[in-house]
Amino acid sequence: MRWDSLFDDLEAQLAEQTRAQLRDEIAENTRIERATAQLSDVLSQYRGNEISVMVIGHTEIRARLGPCATDYFCLETEASQWIIRYQVVESIALPSERRAAPLTSQSGKAIRFSAVLRGMLRDRSRCQIYGTHGSLIAEGTLGQVAKDFLLISMHQRDEYVRSSNPAAQVMIPLESIGWVVSTTLN
């Protein structure tokens, strides 16, 4: 009978030691997972939710979160769309309750900043381009988006760019762009 209690005690100690080791492994894996998390991955979990973003220059943008890539993310409202590079973000206020984000593939993360700007070029949307220091660089209609720069045609807000009346063009290196706002004319 004494042997039975001794073996029961040893088995209980072993079981407790195994449980403690499993708890430690889970805690360590959680720490590793949290330490290696990337901003774009965490932010993409809030896609479709309204967030508030503070960018350089004390500008606050409150809009619905769209696609998130490795170096930028998109926001949208009824009238405007923003493409914001992470390098100009000071803070992001996340919603207290997260709506279920639509399931999307990770392939959108590989879409380059210039490719999204080319989409704006095709739409012929009026754009405001802000620099990495938060100041407005140019306002007008995109004329060309190249590998490392863009051309924007400057014109009055209520005018359209016409090939018969060329407007002044400004060349902007893509690296100097902090965010771009595209406004829909209604």
Describe the model.
The chain has 186 residues and is α+β, with helices and mostly antiparallel strands. The chain has a single domain, classed as Roll (SH3 type barrels), CATH 2.30.30. Helices cover 27% and strands 36% of the residues. The protein has a ten-stranded antiparallel beta sheet. The radius of gyration is 25 Å and the shape is elongated. 17% of the residues are buried. It comes from Glutamicibacter ectropisis. This is Histidine kinase.
Quick structural gist:
It comes from Glutamicibacter ectropisis. The protein contains three helices and ten strands.
**Strand adjacency order, main sheet:** 5-1-2-3-4-10-6-7-8-9
What is the average of the pLDDT values?
86
**CATH class term:** Mainly Beta
CATH topology call: SH3 type barrels
Shape: elongated
Number of helices: 3
Helical content band = 25-40%
Proper CATH architecture: Roll
Overall structural domain count: 1
How are helices and strands ordered from N to C? HHEEEEEHEEEEE
Sheet bearing the most strands, described?
Answer: 10 strands, antiparallel
Which structural class do the helices and strands define?
alpha+beta
**Which range does the strand content fall in?**
35-45%
Radius of gyration: 25 Å
Distance between the termini: 88 Å
Low-confidence stretches: none
How many strands? 10
Protein name: Histidine kinase
Organism: Glutamicibacter ectropisis
